[in-house]
Every structure is written in structure tokens, then in C-alpha cells.
Amino acid sequence: MQPNTLSGPSGSPALGVGDLVHTMHPAEVPGALVKPGAEPILRATAIQKFFGLNHVLKGCSMTVYPGETITILGRSGSGKSTFLRCLNFLEEPSAGVVEIHDRRVISNPLAPRSKAVKEDIRNLRLRAGMVFQEFNLFPHLSVIRNLIEAPVHVKHMPVAEATELAESYLEKVGLIEKRNEFPARLSGGQRQRVAIARALTMQPDVLLFDEPTSALDPSLVGEVLKVMESLAHEGRTMIVVTHEMSFAKEAADRVYFMDEGEFVEVGPPEQVLADPHDERTRKFLSRFLNI
Question: With 80 as the cut, is the pLDDT of residue 257 above it?
């Protein structure tokens, strides 16, 4: 019996789901803050996603090294957020493989999940912290309790240790004085900074940002981007879906442009943003940049 085959981003056939081989794009070279000899911390291989008959992701692959900041650009509906959610199985891929650090999960949505697969997915999610558009803070909990809830109940961290860690990240995002406030008493920018601190408190290997400034008043965008740029410059591993071109230009090691469920252009920001090779990238960027 022949194995099922998938098509990669270039249209070339891939091996059967259980035998997928990860192929790196020529532009996926370690960024400036990556330590010499470091191995990739994340590999996504031939990620496919169908919603009914709608083929949303068409074999997307990505390689990320520890310490890199990756940005994903593209029009609304191009598949950016779906790809991001597939990386920690908040959305299970229809096919493909995700590997983060020492956890590798092969997507097989038609098969019942065994206890071992459920545990692998749980550990994958612990390694990939998510920051959403809409903050998703618990409204009935104070800021500090929002931060310690998951470390205490998911990672079984002692309350005192979790609180100390949470306070250090509130300091980092400039909100330690708001530790006892409730989310309703914070601005949108402050709530998003709390959400970033909450993700950091889980100490993930990779931070995933799903358009973290899109729900904010324009006057509040800068305070969130400042925190994210600081994290990028200190070597946090981040994958950011965004329309903030200034952030991509300033902080990204690599830019992926997505169109109709495929990465059609990959490269450093100075190339993709200033001299895009693909006509679809040029057309998209013409709305934001003078190219």
C-alpha cells in the first residue's frame, strides 16, 4: 500500500505522514542572537488544515532557532492565525508534524487520541505560550492571580515561587503597581501587557503572538510593541502574527509572507520588506510601505 502523500510549499511531494522529512528553506539561517551550534527549537513540517472543503493551510513548514523573533505577514484570511494555533494544537492540523524542543506530535485527527498523544500535546502547549488578540484574562481574578493560576494548577509550582516569578515579569512589562487590580480597571494596553507577563510566567520555550495589537486603540499600541521589542532584543524566542511593519523591520530575524495558505516568501526583513521578490508580497506591502 502506498503512503499518503502531501505537497510541500514548493509543490514537491512529501513522504507519508509518519515519514515526513523536515526541509528547511534556504533563508532559515540562525539569527543574530542564536548561540553557535544551536539546533532548531521548533520545526513545523508540511502543516495542512482543512475546514470542511476549505483548504486553509497547504503544506506550511517553518524552522525556528532559540533566540529568534519570527514575524508572519499576510492579508486577513490568508491562514496566519490558523498556522499559529496549529503550532500548539489549539487547532489540530489536518496533517503534518510539529516539534518543539523535545516534543514531537504527528497530526492524525481521524484517530482517537491515546493517553501518550494527549500527554505529548499537553507538553507541546507548555512549551509554546500564546498571547491572543483579546487578552483572555480571567475577569474575576486580580492581575497577580491571573499570572499564578496556570503555574500553580498546571505546573504544580508552589504559590510563593509562582508569585515571585509573576512579580518579576510584571516588573518587566512595567505593571508591578497593578498586581492587585482587576482587568476591568486596566486599559487595553495594560491588559495586553499583563497577558504577555502571564505567558512568560509559564516559562515557555516559544512565545506565540496572534496579532497582539489589533484590538488596541492606536494610542496604546506603542506600549505593547515596546515590551515585545525588549523581549526580542533579549533573545526570547517569538513567533508573531502582525501587521505592525515597524516591529517586523526592527525586531524580526526572519519574515514569512503568507498568501492563500502558503508561505510564498521567506527572508530577512531587509529583503522581504524592502525588496520583495514575489508580486503578491509587493502588492500587500504597497499598502504599508513605499515600494
Answer: yes
Q: How crowded is residue 82: how many other Cβ atoms within 10 Å of its Cβ?
A: 21
Element (H, E) at 83: helix 80-87
DSSP class of residue 160 equals: H
CB 191 within 8 A of CB 223: no
φ/ψ region of 259 (left if φ > 0, alpha if ψ in -120 to 50, else beta) reads beta
177-226 pLDDT, tens per residue?
999 999 999 999 999 999 999 999 999 999 999 999 998 999 999 999 99
CA distance linking residue 148 with residue 121, whole number of Å: 22
Cell numbers that stand for 193 in this block: 501587557
pTM of the model: 0.91
For residues 23 and 257, what is the distance between their CA atoms, to the nearest angstrom? 18
Displacement of CA 174 from its chain's centroid (Å): 23
